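Supplementary Text 2. Reproducibility record for the structural model of the 113-residue chain.

All settings were left at their defaults, and a single model was retained for analysis rather than an ensemble. We include the record here because the model underlies the residue-level annotations in Supplementary Table 4.
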Amino acid sequence: MAESGERRVESDIESEEREAKSGERDARHHLKVGFSVPKKKFKRSVHRHRIRRLMAEAWRHNKATLLQALPPHQGMHVFLVFTGTELPTYQQVQAAVSKSIDKLKTIAGTISS
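Retained model, structure tokens:
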């Protein structure tokens, strides 16, 4: 019984440390993102998940430029929806996400004004 209590205390400490670390980063910018691939266009979940993973990877590589454009202590919630009808390559997804981020940077620029 004491053993499980010790584990819980350790996990509480670890989760507090994680929150503190993420809190430092999120204190300057609050940026949340979501991805969607319609089931109507891609019946197989394998294809939907692949496209979602490609979108997430492209976002991960390009989000730093958006974070730099955001004013301090400003946030943004972004939701990207894939609207194509065929499986894309990573380069196609990368180009589309990069274009979207460029548009979001112009929006972020108007927020700071």
